[in-house]
Sequence to fold (200 residues):
Amino acid sequence: LYNTLDTIIWLAETGEQKKVVSMVGSLSDFFRSTLSRGKDIVTLKEELQHVRSYLEIQQVRYQDILQYEIEAPEELYLCQIPKMTIQPLVENALYHGIKNKRGAGRIRIRCEKENHGCRIRIEDNGIGITKERLAQVQDGILHKVLTGKDIYGLYNVHERIRLNFGEHYGISIESEYGEGTVVSIFVPYVEPAEENKTES
Fold:
């Protein structure tokens, strides 16, 4: 929040009015979707809007190094997902992957139906993870061996998915050092109750 407000002040001082308006709008959308009227489970459409607002803010701050894509078929929009599931993983991709790499970075979010579930992939072309560190991260997620803030964020998302939907669901991670990282989220394909569909 403080970094974003600092950026807004800087943009205002340099006369970038359109960017100020856009960034304030994205910040407002971000916090509105963060609150989600107190709901712990939201639709994929709502979660993706939350992520889009976050990325729009970060793209202004890191315009020289950050591009992003979000791909999701409408048939998955009503799929349910714990709130704040995708954004922490996107934040990891930006801060641990792209910012540590020279040159332009790209984050791509792809959603697709898989069997009776929904697969969401967060791909980045950042610095990647060494084999040794990747093994630590994977072990940390599966066996609660938490070594570092990056693992804690991944573990937290993984556990919230499992607590809501069961042990068959959660996240997995693949990476190649120097090439990038893919974090995959798997949740059941469950739509909200009929009374909630009109809200989405």
